[in-house]
Write a structure and sequence with these properties.
single chain; about 280 residues; alpha+beta; Glutaredoxin; 2 domains; four-stranded mixed beta sheet; 11 helices
């Protein structure tokens, strides 16, 4: 009975880990049972906690834990059968992560586990040898490592999808701020005009973001297509006033030939600063 108890406990712990790794998809899967929003979140979190606690309790041989696990699996079976009867076969069931689907296979599996937990207390309590205990412990450890690996991969995927969903924003360009697009400014005389694009970056001494962007500015200076010049709010106050610079950091991209304003905007990253160069190069 010892090995079976540990195996069944590992199933509960693995199920809890899979639900946790599924994250948002695991919560959305509960919509198949009519649960959404806060109700789905509460049911998802409660199921994870309950399965984890029961798994530990069953592994430790706590009296009544196997019976409680049988009741839980029986409830899962009933929910699956009801969902099948409502025509939701093939929809996510949230049983063991994202890929689990509602169907008779899932219902039979859940019912089988419920029966296994139910008969567990009635099996003879045989003692395990040291080797068997070590083997069982190794098996549980491997299951735990596999569950952690799955959770880590799921977390990495969630972070990747979040970064894709929250795409980097371009520089903020407002018509009423800074020089007029298409206009010509005398600021171009401050440049050597050795590159097609002249980038005027406006910074302030007390601007912490400006200081943080200095490495990015030095990196952009290496671009042979760009000539970059920094205008300090105090030392170049006249340039700030003549162009109506709203604040720092701010950038104005000029055509090296005649000083035409090709693009402009407030930026807070190298990506946003570079987002001004594409439209400027197209207009140059």
């Amino acid at each position: 009975m010892g090995l079976l108890r540990l195996a069944l406990a590992a199933v509960l712990l693995g199920s809890a880990a899979a639900k946790l790794a599924a994250g948002e998809r695991g919560r959305r899967a509960l919509a198949s049972y009519g649960l959404q929003g806060r109700a789905a979140t509460a049911a998802w979190a409660g199921t994870i906690v309950l399965e984890a606690v029961l798994g530990i309790a069953v592994a430790a041989g706590v009296p009544g834990s196997a019976e409680a696990a049988a009741v839980l699996l029986g409830l899962f079976t009933v929910l699956l059968v009801v969902a099948i009867a409502r025509g939701r076969t093939g929809q996510p069931c949230g049983c063991f992560g994202n890929r689990s689907r509602i169907g008779w296979g899932a219902a039979v599996r859940s019912a089988g586990l419920a029966v296994a937990f139910a008969v567990l207390p009635f099996l003879p309590d045989t003692s395990l040898s040291t080797e068997a205990l070590l083997g069982a412990g190794l098996g549980v450890a491997l299951v735990g490592v596999a569950a952690l690996a799955v959770a880590l991969l799921a977390l990495a995927r969630e972070v990747g999808e979040l970064r894709i969903a929250v795409a980097p924003q371009s520089a903020l360009s407002l018509d009423h701020e800074g020089p007029e697009l298409g206009g010509r400014v005398g600021l171009i005389e401050r440049f050597e005009r050795r590159s097609p694009l002249a980038v005027a970056v406006f910074t302030s001494p007390g601007c912490s973001l400006c200081a943080a962007l200095e490495p990015s500015l030095r990196l952009l200076e290496r671009d042979p297509e760009v000539e970059l010049h920094v205008f300090d709010e105090h030392e170049d106050a006249e340039a700030w006033e003549s162009l109506g610079i709203p604040g720092s950091p701010y950038a104005v991209v000029l055509a090296a030939t005649d000083g035409e304003v090709l693009s402009k905007g407030t930026f807070n990253s190298l990506y946003q600063l570079e987002s001004l160069l594409g439209p400027a190069a197209a207009r140059a």
